[in-house]
Amino acid sequence: MTILVINPNSNQAVTDGMADALQVLKISGGPKIECLTLAEGPFGVESQADIEAVTLPLCKLVTERDDADAYVIACYSDPGLQVCREATPKPVFGIQECGVLTALAQGDRFGVIALANASIKRHLRYLRQMGVMDRLARERAANLSVHDSATGTETFAQLCEVGIELRDLDGAETIILGCAGMAAHRIPLAEFLGIPVIDPVQAATSMAMGAVMLKG
């Protein structure tokens, strides 16, 4: 069994960070977890134009890699999710959708740390489509690029600052990291805030594991 976790941007540092965060899910007898970088993608998926640009390359990759048993689209905007689901009979998971569902299972109200203010409008549109706006405490931006989220020296301090605001001002009981590049900060941020922090790549990959291991 193989789960293919696809980073839709071309930043290998983000893929490496995801792979490190997913080591904990590699269990004896469990599925192989393969992390892959979409070479055709932009250095960071940070706009609607970037989302549209990676949709067809993602679909092409999913159809070409039909040896996988499940797929994870590892970008918080869930680019190409529905197109990829139409292209394969196998399960395809988006990390925003899975991150939200995981957060809802661990607290009544969730907050989201977005990369930038420009991302929030897109994310809120998606949350309205999911019908979970009444469970959203708030989404706040850390004002980072995708690359900074994975490699920046000040990233953790910025995440702590936004996390405190979500917890103390907005009443968030769980917090979702709104970018795959933030994966390395989940454990220390959860320890600092004292509430659950969700890495959506881990959340989606966990669901993919359940889907393939419990299949018939």
Structure description:
The protein is an alpha/beta fold. 48% of the residues lie in helices and 17% in strands. It has 9 helices and 8 strands. The protein has a 4-stranded parallel β-sheet with strand order 2-1-3-4, sandwiched between helices. It has a 4-stranded parallel β-sheet with strand order 6-5-7-8, sandwiched between helices. Helix 2 (48-64) packs parallel to helix 3 (81-87) and helix 4 (95-106) packs across helix 9. The two termini are 13 Å apart. The model has no long low-confidence stretch (mean pLDDT 92).
Q: How would the global form be characterised? A: globular
Average pLDDT confidence is: 92
Distance linking N and C termini = 13 Å
Low-confidence stretches: none
Q: What about the largest sheet?
A: 4 strands, parallel
Topology diagram in text:
Blueprint: E1 2-7, H1 12-21, E2 32-37, H2 48-64, E3 70-73, H3 81-87, E4 92-94, H4 95-106, E5 110-114, H5 117-130, E6 136-141, H6 146-151, H7 155-169, E7 174-177, H8 186-193, E8 197-198, H9 200-213
Parallel strand pairs: 1-2, 1-3, 3-4, 5-6, 5-7, 7-8
